[in-house]
Amino acid sequence: MTAPFPTPIADETQRLLSADELAAALRDIGARRYHNLHPFHRLLHDGKLNKDQVRAWALNRYYYQAMIPIKDAAVLARMEDASLRRIWRQRIVDHDGDAPGDGGIERWLKLAEGVGFSRDYVESTQGILTATRFSVDAYVHFVKERSLLEAIASSLTEMFSPTIISERVAGMLKNYDFITKDTLSYFDKRLTQAPRDADFALEYVQKHATTPALQRQAMAALTFKCTVLWTQLDALYFSYVAPAMTPPDAWTPGTGLVPETPVTQAAGTGTIGPDDVPRLPRGVRLRHDAVRGQYVLLAPERTFDLDDNAVLVLDLVDGVRTVRDIAAALAEKFAADRAVIEADILVMLNDLATKRVLER
Amino acid sequence: MNAITPNAPALPAPVGLLAELTHRCPLRCPYCSNPLELDRRSGELDTATWQRVLTEAAGLGVLHVHLSGGEPTARNDIVEITQTCAKLGLYSNLITSGVGGALAKLDALYDVGLDHVQLSVQGVDAANAEKIGGLKNAQPQKLAFAERVTQLGLPLTLNSVIHRGNIHEVEGFIDLAVKLGAKRLEVAHTQYYGWAYVNRAALMPNKAEVDRSIRIVEAARERLKGQLVIDLVVPDYYAKYPKACAGGWGRKLINVTPAGKVLPCHAAETIKQLEFWYVTDHSLGDIWANSPAFTAYRGTDWMQEPCRSCDRREKDWGGCRCQALALAGDAAATDPACSLSPLHAKVRELAVEEAAETPPDYTYRTIGMNVQPNVRSPLNEEAPL
What we know:
The structure holds two protein chains of two kinds. Chain A is mainly alpha-helical. Chain A is 59% helix and 4% strand. Chain B is of the alpha/beta class. Chain B is built from 13 helices and nine strands. At the A-B interface, strand 1 of A face helix 9 of B.
C-alpha cells in the first residue's frame, strides 16, 4: 500500500514540504492512526458497551484529562516568548477553570459521576490501568524532553477531535439510557476549544518546521501522540472487552461507585393505584373561597385552584374510600364509564402525590 | 353615570398575609429580611388587634397567613393568634427558628389547628450553622424541634438561605430534609435586601458555586420525586429576569409589621418617600385599596421603559421596587436584576467582584443597633447609598 502523502517512515525523498503539503501530511497521520478508528471507540459510539465498560473508559480517561494541564504547563515552561505563553496558557485555564466547579477536568468528573462513580475514587486514580498511566506519563515526558516544535506538534490530534466528539456525543446519547446531555457537557466546550487550539498549533508547526528533518520530527511527534491515545484504548479493550483480562489492582465493576440511593419510601408516598386509599394529610385542606367564588386546595406555601371535576374527586377523598370506590361513585352519578374515570382520577391523584399534598 | 371606568382593572384580592408578630429573635442571621431598624417589644400590636387584622384579612380573601417575625413563638399569645386563624379558616404557616420557646409551644399550636411549619436551618454542620445564626447550641434545638413536628404529623418545610458561607452544604441540606422527614425544602439563595444588603460582600457566592448548587438541586429533585419537593430561589444578581416581587406590588401580599405598619412587601420601608398606613388607624381593606404605599406601584401605570413596553410587564411586574431604589436610585426604575435593565451588567460585575474578594465579617442583626449600610452601588456617586 502506497501512502498518498509523505509520512515519517514512508517518505524516501526527504524533501521540504510546502505549508499545505505539511498540513495534509499531518492530517493523513490522523486519518490512519487517530483513535476514532479503534475498535473500542466504535463499540462505545455504537452503544455496544455495557455500563461497566463505559465506566472503565470514563475512569481511565480521567487520568488523561487530569494530566493535560500538567503537560501544557510543561510546554509553557519551555516557551521563551510571552506572546506564545499567553496563547498557550488558555489551555490550562480551559482545563482547570477559573474557580472550583469550573473547567474541563471538572466537567470530566461530572461525566464520571454521571455514570455512577464517586468523585473521590475517580480523583484518586487508584483504579486506572497501568497501561493508561504509562502512556499518559509518556506523553508528559515527551513534551518535557523533546523540542518545543515536537511538543506543540504532538498536540495536533486536536485537529481530529471535533469529528470524534460529534460522533461520540450523538452515539452515546442515542445508545445509552444512563448518559444525559448534561453528563456529556465536557464535549460541548471542546467542540470550540479544540479547533482554536489546533489552528494555532498547526500554524506554529508550519512556520517553525523549516527543514525536511524538522518536518519529519513534527510528523513523528503527532504519530507518537496518536499512539498515546491508541494504547489507552488497547488496554481498555484488553482488560474490559476481550479477553477481559483485568490486571491486578485495576478497577473492577461494583467498586468506587456511589451507592444507588436506596428507595427509602417515606410513609404514605409512592405511586397510587386503584386499590389505594388516598387521603389529604394534615396541612392540606379543601376550602371554599367565598371571595373568589371557587374551591381551593390549601397546602404548605401554595394554593391549588380546582376545577369542578377536581372538587368532585377531592370531596370523595376521605381516607376511607379506595380510588376504585371513588371512580365507581362518580361513574354512577354521571352514568359514565368507570374505567375511564378511574384512569383520569389516578393521573390527577398521582400528580398531587408527587407534589406531596396527597398520601395513601 | 357608571361609577366604574369600563377598563379599570378590578382590585385584586390579596392571597397572603405576612404577619410579622415580633422582631424579637434569638438568632442574629446576617441576611435577615427584617428592616435595619427593628421594632421593640413595647411597640408591638396587642392580641386583640392582631385578631381584628386576621378577621379583616379573611374577609378580603386572604387564604394563607404566615406567622413570622423575628421569632413568632417569642410572643406569649402565639397560640391564641394561631387559634384565631383556624377559626377563620385561614391556613396558618409558622415560620420559625425552632429555638428558644418554640418547642415548648409546639404541641399547643398543633392542638389549636396549626397547618404547617417552616423551620429555618442556617447550616448542616452545627458549628457553621451556629456561626451564621450567631447563637450557640441552636442546632440541637432545631433538630429536636423538627423531630417533634414530624412526630405530630405536621407538614414540615426546611428553609435554607444559601450564601457563600453554606453553599458547599447544599447536598447536606437535601440529606437533612430527607432525614428529618420534611416534605419540602426551600433552597433559597439570599436576596440582597435588609441585613443581607449590608452583608452582601460577606454573603455573595460566585457564579460557579451558584451553578453547581442549581445542578445539585435539579438532580435531587429527580431522585427524590414524590418524597421531597425542593423549591429553588436563585440569586437575583445572576438571574436573567427579576422575580415578581411578592407576586406583584399590591397584588397578592400584605405585610403587617410588629407595630402594625402595613407594607406591600417586607422591605418596602426602604423606599422612604412612601406613606404607610397603620392597622391601628385604618381597616385592612381600606389600606389595601387606598393607602398611598399600595397604590404607588400597583399595576403597570407607574412603569418606565424598558418595563413599560415589555411583554413581561405583567409577569414580573418590573421586579423589585426596593432593589430598583437601592441599585438604580429610583424605585420606579426597572429592577437592575433584569437583564433588560441598562444597569444589569454593572450589577453582575459587582456580584462577581464581591464574590471574588475575601469575605468581610458578618454584621449581625441586632435590635437597637444603628447600622450604616456601607455597600458599593453600581452607579456613580450621585446615587443613594
